[in-house]
Structure formats: structure tokens, C-alpha cells
Structure prediction request, 731 residues.
Amino acid sequence: MNEPEFFQQGERLGVLTTQPLDRVLDYRAPEGGCFRGAFVEVPLGPRKVLGVVWGRGAGDFEASKLRAVIRVLDVAPMREEMRAFLTKAADYTLTPLPQMLRLATRAPGLSDPPSMRKVLRLGEGAPDRMTDARQKVLAVMEEFGGLAFTPKELADMAGVTASVVKGLVKQGALREEEAPRDLPYPPLNPDLPSKDLTEDQATAARALDRAVHSGRYGTTLLKGVTGSGKTEVYLEAVASALRKGRQALVLLPEIALTAEFLKRVEARFGATPAEWHSGATMTERRRVWKMVGQGKAQLVIGARSALFLPYRDLGLIIVDEEHDTSYKQEDGVLYNARDMSVLRAAMCSAQVVLASATPSLETWANADNGKYTRLNLTSRFGTSVLPEMRAIDMRDEDLPTGTWISPKLKQAMTLRIERGEQSLLFLNRRGFAPLTICRACGAQVACDNCDARMVEHRFMKRLMCHQCGDTKPVPEACPTCEVEGKMAPVGPGIERLGEEAAALFPEARIAVLSSDLFGSARALKQRIEEIAAGEADIILGTQLVAKGHNFPLLTLVGVIDADLGLQGSDLRAGERTFQLMRQVAGRAGRAERPGEALLQSFQPEHPVIRAILSGDEEEFWRAEAEQRRIAGVPPYGRMAGIILSGTDLAQVFDLGNALARNNRPLIDINAMLYGPAPAPIARVRGRHRVRMLIKAEKGAPLQDAIARWIKPFRMKGDLRLSVDIDPQNFF
Ligand code: ADP
Ligand code: ZN
Prediction:
């Protein structure tokens, strides 16, 4: 690649800042000059802000008033390929560039001078006596002679406790030294022995190795049932990238980023990789950001925004559980990390591996039409087999009101308790009860700020709105008719199911897993690990248990309401239910014991339920694909959602109507416009929401048309317009 353009001191250049301005600002190059791509600090009014030297200045700003760049930051400059990626991602999602830049600089203190911290090196002294643990520490130091480690890293790498390391410092065998805080990550060794792969796995790993070694862009769907060894296979692809001297990124749904997973990676490569997620400390984030840029972090394990780190040479992106809806960011920049991975990889000649047991229809279709390569792992590793799946026809079951666990399901649970195995009951509903109703007048308790019902959370002893998070106490008297003592919960939530299970199995240890019952992600992960170790007989969980946890003792999964996801009018309702049920069922029988999954349903003859039970996935996808093709919807057509919001309903609708009347740019590309109509949740946090939907043909230049369409409209008052390309949710 060519050297980037250089600006001599005093020359006019353009800086893209992270501030919400719709253009690049002109400055004078600082003393010593700077390259295009340099991260800089520039004055903006009275403030100093972060920016990137974007190119030559536009020149329309008076030269005499031009201010100088304050300084060039001591971080790796933005590479051309990153700039191209941000530009394309901005165009694709219709996001202003400064907002993209903000996403790409989400580490604090990038402009601070490097701070120092204590690290350890080999010292002169010898320990008074040599123990195994001490020997391990010294062996690590010798192996990586030239490097310094923090006490914690050293202890982790040697597999000893912190006190062993402390002891060696006291005796002078290790010496403390001040070093810049942002240290390189310990090197990973791709040549440590891997597990012996099965034939299936080895074939897949070889194909990925060839792909990585091609040095070209490509995307592969790695499809395999839960437990088939997808992780083992893609870790070999990571090894291939590391051997080639390129960096690798493993994206996981946030909740799947567990200590268990990191330990597996460490076991394979001999050291811990860089981690990037919402739980990481600020200093850790900065370290990752800087070291990734210098190529001194070879592997990043991260949540979706890790895609926007400034890799020096990214050769491989793994998107694990690629169908997971949390890859779509639903606020701020509306992007889908899965799709952006493909874009990013195309920019830097990298390979993408999309791993899933139940791929999204988009990915399935891309593999079907040959755009993506497809690799299959067909069986579970070892003796473990897929659970047997059956429906419980709820029309035949006799249940007292206010209970949801059918006699058949109860019987299956009893059997597990007798055998010392675990059961999981799945219900995708947080809280105690979805409705609180007055038995005297029939009124329901609704949120004051939103068009949504309040959900009782008995654990908090309050009602809560799942839209805005507002809470209030459960009223004694009905807010509508004022009759006292008649307010009653209606319907099941996960907490209520917990009470029912406790009543049915008073001796059993019961664990309720719902995101809102834990103060922090860490506490939740801790609990999950305890449960995996056997500290519960019955687990009750919402959606979050579907994601990648390994419970070896689990042999029964009971789905309380398999029909729940099928009720919406959502385009992806069938697909989502199918994925979720298969994923949940996949939790059972992961170790040696075979599993069973029972789906409670009032409509077991529904095509989606039948497809889930029959296990004929290809048939399900083909049928689903055919329906979408006929309807001309994604992936066979394009869609964009427009959400208008504001505190004044009339104003919001006026804007919607004006947009609908002036839709020439959409007509030009043959796109259909639906709405304005109230969004399914028509008011959130006191703001009215109105929705419009655009449907276009597959090849249509949708973003360009939308950009031209909305450009003339000015947002008066507190009106907001946001564009959601490829919407996943229709709320
Ligand atoms: P997936 O990612 O498809 O759910 P994993 O890679 O997590 O599957 O594999 C499931 C379990 O089986 C893990 O505990 C893994 O270590 C083990 N396993 C898979 N393949 C092998 C193998 N070839 N040798 C030894 N253990 C394996
Ligand atoms: Zn609310």
C-alpha cells in the first residue's frame, strides 16, 4: 500500500471529530507535520476534542482564522482499510460519520499520556527453597525472557496463586519495575497440542485453514448441532490465522462471554487473549484498543463492538451463535455485527466464520446460493446425542388455574430428581406475572409513560414497565374503580413459575435465571457456573439460558409455552421460535447422559412446531425461504424501518404524513412505503412513536434513496427520525 499523504507544519488539513457536526473541520498541521489517519486532539470552541486527520482541508474556511492541531496522539494511526470500513458502514446504516468514529474510539483516555504500573521481571535473587509452584512461575519467565508481566498475568499463566508470585518478589527472584500501563498481551502459541479432532471436525478445520491461508476474503457458515465441536474447529482456524501472523477476533453474544470460554482459549493457546465487553474496566479497554492497533493483541474475544477496534492486520472473524439477535444493536448506531463482520472482512481480505446450530435464514440462504461456503458438523462429540423432542398437547392436560406445569412434565421432572439429574424449565417472560388485573372492573395496570402494561416483579415487590424501566408498587386499590383487595396477577412469568416448581418439589433446589434478578452480569455468570457444577435440581430460565451455556447434568428441558413466539405478526416469528426451541433443547444431554425436550403446546400441528419436532431443519428453512420469496421480504427483498418520535403526537404524525407525501425518491426505485402508523408500542418514555416501513427489490439502491428522501426535512422541536436498515424488530 502507498504511504499515506503527509501534511507539513502549517498546511491545511481536514479533521473528522467525534462531535455531532455534519462535516469535516479544517485545521493547520501541527509542528512536525502529520500523516493522514493520525489521531489528533484539536480545539473546538473552548474544548479539546478527539479526531482523525481525514484528508486535505475543504478550504472554505478563512485561512487567517484557522487553528492548529494541538497534538498528534501516541496511538497507531487509523489505517486506510478502517477508514474505508467506517465510511461504508456509515453509508450502509445511514449513520453520520462522526457517530461511526465514536463507535470506533470507545476507549477512555486515548489522549492521556501513557500511565505507569508495576510489572515483574526476572530478578537476581534465588528463592530460599524451590517448590513446584515457584518452578512454574520461573519457567514462564524464562520462556518469555524479554517480556514483563503483571503479577496477575504471571500467576494466571503459571497456574499458581497470587501469593506464590508475591513470595518470589519478596525473595528477589522477581523484581518489580514501572512500565507503561498499556502492556502488550502475552503471546499466544498456536502450536500447543490441540484436541484430537474427529474426522468431521478435521475436515472442517482443514477447509478453514486453507481459507485463512488464501489471504483472501471469504465467508463460511459452520453449521453443527450444539456440542458438535464448532468451538474446537474454529479455534483451529484461529490457530491458522496466528501462524500466518494475522490477528483474529471471536465475537460472542455478550452473555456467552464466560470464564469457562476464556479458559478453553487459554488451554489451547497457553495465555489469555484480550477481552472486550461491557464488563471490562476502563483501563483494560484502553489497553485492548491500543495493543490491537499495534498488533500486540493477537486475539480478541469480544462482544459486537469489538468489530470496531483498530486491528493492525485482522485475518479472521468468528461470529459464534451468528443467529443471535443481540448482534443487532438497537440503539445509537443501528447495525448488525454479523453483517458488518462480512463488510469489514471484505475490506481487509479476511475470512469470516459464522457458527451456529440454527443459522439465520439470511445466512442459510447465502450458503444455499453459494455466496458463503458451508461446512457441516453432523453429530455431537463423543457419546452425547441430541435430545429426543416431543410435544405435550396441552388440550389433553388437566391443569388447575394459575398453574402451568402439566402432569406429564411434572412426571418427567420427578424422574430427573430421582436420578440426580437437572431439569430446565424455559419460559421467555421475565417477572412474576405479565398482567395485573382488577377482578372488580377488569382494568389492567399500565405504565404512565408508555403504552405498555406493567409487569409484576415479586422479587422487587413492584410493578415494572419493560419498555422504560419505570416501577411502582403493586396497588392495594384498583386505580380505576378504587375497589380494594381485588388486584390479581394474571398469567405466568418466570418468578411465578419458580413458586409453582417449589410447591411441586418442596425438597428440590431451585434456581431462577432471569437477567433482572442479578445485580450484575458477573453475579449472573457466577450463578451459571455454580449451576453447571450441580448446585441446582431445577433451573428456570428466560431467553438467556438458551445461549451457549454448558450444563453437564441437564437431561430434561421443558418448554412451558412453545406457542409464545408464534403469536406476533413479526416476519421472523417462525424462524425465531424455531431457533430458540432448538437452542433450548440443545441444552439437554450435553455430557454422557441422553436428553429429552418436552414442548407444551396448544397447537402441536402448527408447521413450525412440527418442524422443530421432526428435526428436519432443511425442510423448515426451505419452506420458510419460499414464503419469504413469495412475499418479497428479506433476504429476497430489502426493508428499512423509519421510527419517528416526539412528545407531541400531532407533530410526529405531521412529519410522517409529509414524508409520505413527498416520497418521490422512493418511487424512483420502485419501493413501497407503508405508514405512518402508530408503532406497536406507541409511546415509550412519554414519547409518541410512529413507524413507517419501506420495502424494495433486492438490488435496489435503498440507502441512497432514503438519504435523498429524508434530506429536505428539518427536525423541529424534539422530533427524532431514525432509520433502521434491515430491521430485526418491529416495535
Ligand atoms: P459447540 O461449539 O458445537 O457447541 P464444543 O466445541 O463446545 O461444541 O464441543 C462440545 C464439547 O465437546 C466441549 O466440551 C468440547 O471440549 C468437547 N469436544 C468437542 N470435540 C472434541 C474433540 N475432538 N476431542 C475432545 N473433546 C471434544
Ligand atoms: Zn414505561
Observations:
- Residues 447, 449-450, 452, 465, 467-468, 470 surround zinc ion (ligand 2) (CB under 6 Å).
- The mean pLDDT is 88.
- Residues 72 and 604 are 65 Å apart (CA to CA).
